[in-house]
Amino acid sequence: MTTRIAVIGLGSIAVEHLKAYQLNPQAELVAVCDVDLERAKARGEQFGVARVTGSAEEIFSDPDVDAVSVCVPNTLHAPIAEAALRAGKDVLVEKPMTVTVPEAEALVKAVEETGKALQIGYVRRYAPNALVTKRFLDAGEFGDIYAARATLLRTAGNPGGWFGDVELSGGGPLIDLGVHIIDLCWYLMGMPKAVSASGATFAPLGARDNIQNLTRYKAASAARPNTVEDFATAQIRFEGGAVLDVATSFSLHARNEISVRIHGDKGGAEIEPELLMITERHDTLLHVQPQIDSLGFDFRIGFANQIDHFLRICRGEIPADATAEQGLEMARMLTAIYESAKSGAEVAITR
Ligand SMILES: NC(=O)c1ccc[n+]([C@@H]2O[C@H](COP(=O)([O-])OP(=O)(O)OC[C@H]3O[C@@H](n4cnc5c(N)ncnc54)[C@H](O)[C@@H]3O)[C@@H](O)[C@H]2O)c1
């Protein structure tokens, strides 16, 4: 049984969704939608999708659409995902699920009330480096994870467009890049409840549009004023005492860097930049490097796996596992970090 898919929002990341659906025999791409109708037409042609619309409402009311990918700017995730669920569609929503806690609570309610699936596009969970780590972790190889540290720094990587406009993005690198690495650590830590967060944000450099001869990921949408942070650094504390430290930037006087590490009482793992497991046996330290095709995050395989996983959810073979409840917990963590950055004090996370 194929799942009939519509993709809503057809900018840069939608291309990865469209490619992965196109290559998956379990998916039938039936419609594409973007408020920029010219872009929608171009994507329709590019991927051979005949039904092209500028209105998401048309997708919601179309009985020939079973499920949607939501690839619009962050602050539009909540209304579009909720309307799709309430119209009876399964939903794959790009990260972050929402930018506020009340919106996330509304999505949790919508999933409960409709019985439809909502899956968050935490693509990094589905790349082989994370899948292998999870398998070792579930077998108890690392023991209890009590600390995680994640860094995703771009020297000059503000994507521009809506990403820089806090009204549409909800924030800068923390909510855009930080969400990926916070989620990956949190997921591998066993998704403990967050109890507090402390953070700081800085914006002395701006979007650094002056930088030449350097390719960067760019939003397809038009330029807007830059009102987000350049750099965020934070610590999240969890029930049971575990901590997660995170640092992330769009603009920073630093080299580009990605690092994702978890530390347990029996062993640790570096998931990025290259999978490596660290442990001790017979009074000797061991570095164990799994032999897999890609030791770092493989974007193409990650997307292919994520889409295949979503299609299995749509067919009812497995439940959603990057759920609205998890999106709500992420909204709590990100909101607390931004609040802490404003107040200059640690913020308790209450529910
Ligand atoms: N998973 C990842 O690695 C990853 C990477 C980049 C972006 N993203 C996420 O994907 C989403 C989109 O980012 P992007 O880089 O593709 O942005 P983009 O600006 O390139 O594309 C967004 C598109 O949404 C369209 N749009 C805006 N409002 C709409 C509406 N109401 N209905 C239909 N279309 C609408 C815009 O016209 C534009 O074409 C964001 O949530 C972002 O955080 C995820």
TrEMBL record:
**InterPro entries, sorted:** Gfo/Idh/MocA-like_OxRdtase_N, Gfo/Idh/MocA_oxidrdct_glycsds, GFO_IDH_MocA-like_dom, NAD(P)-bd_dom_sf
Q: Which Gene3D superfamilies match?
A: Dihydrodipicolinate Reductase, domain 2 (3.30.360.10), NAD(P)-binding Rossmann-like Domain (3.40.50.720)
Q: Which residues form the GFO/IDH/MocA-like oxidoreductase domain?
A: 134-269
* The keyword Oxidoreductase is assigned to this record: yes
Q: Does the keyword Transmembrane apply?
A: no
Name the domain of life this protein comes from: Bacteria
Q: Which UniProt keywords apply?
A: Oxidoreductase
Which GO molecular-function terms appear in the entry? nucleotide binding; oxidoreductase activity
- What name is this protein filed under? Gfo/Idh/MocA family oxidoreductase
High-level lineage: Bacteria, Bacillati, Actinomycetota, Actinomycetes, Propionibacteriales
